[in-house]
Design goal:
CATH superfamily of the largest domain: PAS domain
Strand content: 15-25%
Structural class: alpha+beta
CATH architecture of the largest domain: 2-Layer Sandwich
CATH topology of the largest domain: Beta-Lactamase
Number of domains: 5
CATH class of the largest domain: Alpha Beta
Shape: elongated
Distance between the termini: 82 Å
Number of helices: 15
Number of strands: 17
């Protein structure tokens, strides 16, 4: 600190001395130049009232040897010059001082002289015969006077510089020594009052730094806690692409073990596209990509971070991807399921129009068209209902519904179909809940219809309703062909049929159980299937 104070004080004193010296020299130079101009004016005024010849006779009175004298005719021709041959000199009519003297009787100027090869002062007067007498002196004469005094000026500057150097040393010692004796470990105890404000500032700053450090540590702990508890993965990389930090979710996604700081992004995910996206983010471009890991789908959002480098946000899109896949499959299945009855209807109608169907066979073709049309209408109705359930456009759920009454109504509607299959339908129990009556009708109808279609002759379908204060249980069981283990997990998917040939023959759309599942979910319930192939099926619903 002492050396710093000494250097700064010495520098400031030196700069001050130098600046003052330059200013003084400048002032002195200006004074010398002014004296030269005044001397030229006095000497030219000696010739006012003379003609060329009289002036030429009196040129010996001029004095200094470096004084140049020139006489110029009114037309600009040089008549006389004491330092050059007049006949070799160019026309001087364009000179400023000559023009001013011809007009007003006196003129002056300051410019570079090509003849003398230096800066020159000019002063001119008009003589009685119209010619102009001009006197000039160069700055060289000023500099000779100035240079003569330069040693004294230099000595004075060096003397002042030495004095400033010595004073700076003493000032530095006087400033530093008292500061070095101050104890700042606790409350400052200063030897004199002048240092008390300084000591208090230092002490306060030390306390503020300690408090700020504690706050930063607390914030860092909070950020770490947030990062570690995020379900989304977060990876931070520096401007060189090296890993700074990886939160727990990201480490779990990539299967990272141990500290990852300083490692390459390729050690997280060996994917060239991922590596290129990181490189583009370092150049200021945003990017995103999907990748698979551990049987799940993830989306990586890669963005440049202004003060860090790159931040990578990892989102689990498995369910979204699965839903998108189901949507595509649903669209494809809808197209297929709609095309099949339409093709049959079109083919039958075409044959009838062509007249290739015998009269006795026409009722058969009409019946086929009607059956396929009915199947098509049922399919469209199921698709519309399923779409409404998907979009949340459910029917009013504030109606008090007698579940047993709705189940018996469905049993009555399916009585003829049950009789044709040789199946008995039974409803037992009581219960009521706030629900959509039409949706509950769809629920019972689809489950009981499935139980009839996939049953054996002499089989039975029975519905049990059990209600307590806490919940309502609905069970729909049958003695049919059952569902295999391979089909059980997919039975609620749209257009999925465990027995495709039998389902089509019975007129099923493949959407019944998907609709049942959605109805249950809309009413806040759950549904479970218990079944074995050849031993019937049991659907257990709880609200």
């Amino acid at each position: 600190m002492r050396k710093k104070i000494f250097r700064q004080t010495a520098l400031l004193s030196s700069l001050g001395i130098l600046l003052v010296s330059v200013l003084l020299c400048g002032v002195w130079y200006r004074q010398l130049a002014a004296r030269v101009r005044a001397d030229l004016e006095v000497r030219t005024q000696m010739f006012v009232g003379d003609d060329f010849q009289s002036a030429r006779d009196n040129l010996s009175l001029i004095g200094p040897e470096d004084m140049r004298v020139t006489v110029v005719a009114p037309d600009g021709a040089v008549l006389y010059d004491n330092m050059a041959r007049p006949q070799e000199m160019e026309d001087h009519l364009g000179r400023k001082e000559i023009q001013e003297a011809l007009v007003s009787g006196r003129g002056e100027s300051h410019r570079f002289s090509d003849t003398l090869d230096t800066e020159t002062y000019y002063c001119a007067v008009r003589l009685t015969d119209g010619s102009v007498l001009r006197m000039a002196r160069t700055t060289g004469s000023i500099w000779r006077v100035f240079a003569g005094a330069l040693p004294a000026v230099t000595a004075a500057i060096l003397l002042f510089a030495a004095a400033g150097y010595f004073a700076s040393g003493r000032l530095a010692r006087r400033v530093v020594e008292p500061i070095g004796r101050v104890d700042l470990s606790g409350d400052p105890d200063v030897p004199y009052d002048e240092l008390a404000p300084f000591a208090r500032v230092i002490t306060d700053q030390r306390r503020q730094i300690a408090a700020g450090s504690a706050e930063l540590q607390e914030r860092a702990g909070t950020i770490d806690a947030i990062m570690d508890n995020m379900t989304e993965g977060v990876v931070l990389l520096d401007r060189r692409g090296a890993i700074l930090s990886v939160n727990k979710s990201a480490a779990a996604i990539f299967g990272a073990r141990g500290p990852m700081g300083g490692r390459s992004d390729l050690e997280l995910l060996r994917d060239l596209d991922f590596h290129r996206q990181i490189g583009r983010a370092l150049e200021g471009q945003r990017g995103e990509m999907n990748f698979s890991r551990g049987g799940r789908e993830y989306r990586a959002l890669i963005s440049p971070a202004a003060q860090t480098g790159v931040v990578v946000l990892l989102l689990d899109i498995t369910e979204r991807a699965r839903a998108e896949k189901m949507r595509r499959e649903f669209s494809a299945n809808v197209s297929h399921e709609l095309k099949t009855p339409l093709t049959s209807i079109y083919g039958s109608a075409e044959m009838l129009r062509a007249g290739v169907v015998q009269e006795d066979d026409r009722p058969l073709f009409y019946g086929k068209i009607m059956d396929e049309a009915a199947r098509l209408l049922a399919l469209i109705e199921d698709i519309i209902l399923l779409s409404e359930l998907d979009e949340g456009k459910t029917r009013q759920l504030k109606e008090r519904v007698d579940l047993a009454a709705v189940a018996r109504e469905c049993a009555g509607a399916l009585a003829q179909k049950a009789a044709e299959h040789g199946v008995t339908v039974e409803v037992a129990g009581t219960g009521a809940m706030t629900a959509s009556r039409s949706l509950m009708y769809e629920l019972f109808y689809n489950l009981m219809d499935n139980g009839i279609k996939y049953n054996r002759p002499g089989g039975r379908v029975w519905v049990e309703i059990v209600q307590t204060e806490e919940k309502t249980d609905i069970t729909v069981s049958d003695t049919g062909i059952g569902i295999s283990d391979a089909d059980r997990d997919r039975i609620f998917e749209r257009f999925y049929r465990a027995d495709k040939s039998r389902s089509r023959q019975s007129g099923g759309t493949g959407l019944g159980l998907a609709i049942v599942r959605h109805i249950v979910l809309v009413h806040g319930g759950s549904i479970r299937l218990a079944s074995r192939q050849g031993e019937g099926a049991r659907f257990e619903i709880t609200f």
